[in-house]
Amino acid sequence: xxxxEPETQYQPRWPxxxxxxxxxxxxxxxxxxxxxGKLLLGDDQIIVGYGFREWGAxxxxxxHSIPQWDPSQFGGMPxxxxxxxxxxxxxxxxxxxxxxxxxxxxxxxxxIILAGLAMYLLLRALRLGWTAAVVGGxxxxxxxxxxxxxxxxxxxxxxxxALAPLVFLALVKAIRDxxxxxxxxxxxxxxxxxxxxxxxxxxxxxxxxxxxxxxxVFFDPERPAGIRWPVPLGLALLAxxxxxxxxxxxxxxxxxxxxxxxxxAGGPSAGWEYATGFAFPVSEVxxxxxxxxxxxxxxxxxxxxxxLHTEYLGVAVVIPAILAFGAAxxxxxxxxxxxxxxxxxxxxxxxxxxxYRLWYEVMPMVKKxxxxxxxxxxxxxxxxVFAGLGVDRxxxxxxxxxxxxIVSGVLAVFALIGVIGGLQPFAQGLxxxxxxxxxxxxxDQLRTGSLRLLVMVIGSGLVLWLILRGTVKDGLAMALLAxxxxxxxxxxxxxxxxxxxxxxxxxxxxxxxxxxxSIKPPFRVxxxxxxxxxxxxxxxxxxxxxxYHGQELRYYDDLLGGKGEWKNLGNPNLWDLIAVxxxxxxxxxxxxxxxxxxxxxxxxxxxxxxxxxQDSAPPYVRVVPAAAKVPEDQVVPTVTDPxxxxxxxxxxxxSTTVTPAPIQGxxxxxxxxxxxxxxxxPGSMRITLTxxxxxxxxLLIAENWYPGWEATSDGKSIPVRRGDNTLISLTIPPGAxxxxxxxxxxxxxxxxxxxxxxxxxxxxxxxxxxxxQLRSKAGV
Length: 780
Fold this sequence. Notes:
Helix 4 (100-125) runs parallel beside helix 7 (155-176) and helix 8 (180-195) packs parallel to helix 10. The strands form 5 sheets. Strands 4-3-5-7-6 form a 5-stranded mixed sheet. Strands 11-12-18-14-15 form a 5-stranded antiparallel sheet, with no helix packed on it. A 4-stranded antiparallel sheet has the order 8-13-17-16, with no helix packed on it. The protein contains 28 helices and 18 strands. By secondary structure, it is α+β, with helices and mostly antiparallel strands.
């Protein structure tokens, strides 16, 4: 029977509608607690992701525009350029309409369903029967590397994973079926993956799409007769370029920001060790069928620091995937997909194989990435396509019962060895001495997981065998395949769906937070004992000296003594410069200049908390009578020196275009000008000045400098400079009475224009030819 005739197999009326219902029901097996009001927040979401989203939505409702400056953490940073999650991805629209809890739940659930539907559409386009396509879709939406992303809260990775099959589908429609709208679909999906914004995952997807496109043009047996390769490949490249253009609203500000971030040249978030961290170790390949081999979640003992996801593929998926090999007429397809799977498996292995060094050195921008293990989602995608092909072969009776028995038997023997404890010595042999205790503590989990594996192997093999014998067929065959596939994947996935109470409970108010909210901003707080999640402080509009981000401004990191080290955090000069007014501690403090305001209280994290305040609140803005230029590498050591007069001198790097008057003598007299912060809001402030002087004077503001800050006085523009390594500074114009500062990211303006033009071109790319064709047929 030809693979181009899926209609000869069972198919219900309204097949896509029934398929969607299957994907929704499968998603409900892990998402059902959402309906009772529980919140699906992963670790990163709880810590800070919720705060990013709540703050952004609130600012949008308030100003009816996307906020551009975020003052909540690390001295402030650009909200768009530093990337605070899915700012421009469609899930952001949900937060403008629904409560944040509901919007976050919907974002996760809808993309799990979308992953299944996208895979289903791809398999149907590859001429698979309905049952095979549905099983492939169920396999992909619940495959470990996709579904378990909810555990760390990596929604951006989930979004790209869900969209990935649509890129393959778009190329099939565009090249094989010669539908121009396929190129338009490719543009839009590429744009969405980049707006997720998970650039690394999208990068991998584009490489895979390139391999897939070459197959469709040169090796696909169903490619159009007489195809002229430069045309489809050129159009596909143009579609990808338009997709990149669609992401310009986020990508252009981010690209401009990279040199100012920890990922800039010479920054701490760069280099081989950084780039190869959190790879998928070769020794953990057994976890694709037996996750408990290396331990799940708290039982994990592998070579990474921790692991909040799984690469579990499912034996109900792996068995039919193996059966796909040998499919008549699909040899080239299987080879091409196999190449894609092997290629990205090697990337996922990272430094565990020599291949990654070549990838690291040759491919552009790879040196600014990390965690290559995330590339495994493309391996899972291919395995799920193979699973659909295998099921299709079984339904067509192209596979013998003997082959099913052999494949199932091998996996059953492996599982049985684990049940009797035979895999434990092997695990201990792979572990380093420091991991031995964790490996031994995982022994019971390994045996239990092996028993689960054995049950699933028997169940999956039995269903396939019954179908081959003709005992079950049509709708019953589909139902049994769906049940065993979902049951297998659910048995592992559900451990990663850790639901939380509503955000009002997670971030419950207390007396300490109530007091801080009663203080007029701006001021900064040091949470010395990580008493609160950064999300808590963000949602309460309390500016934190530190926080949780990873893309904060590197100048600020340097001033505080290095990213993640913060060796200068206790420096009194810095407390004064960055306006530290309060300290939150989990224990009592005895520091000069601080007095107790609140405490002890018990926070919603169950920790004791004490709030201390400086006896004299440091100013947020100050007038400094003198300035000096020093080499860049001398600014931080000088500013943090206790002898440095921060009230009298502001330091500029030598590259700054300012020529301060020479400092005469050790004593610098103050100028008779004082500054007061009259108005302040995120990305905007007005400073009033009292007094006047003929001498040069400088304004220093306890907020981070970044290109985009603009200052005016009496309608005249004033250059804004970087003072004391990271703070906003400027020369006070003679006679000035007020200075207005506003943050406007010019790269964002450019990005908006690029996105708009790319969207228009992509729309015309896909729909104009169809419109012309329709008008021609109508004789218009």
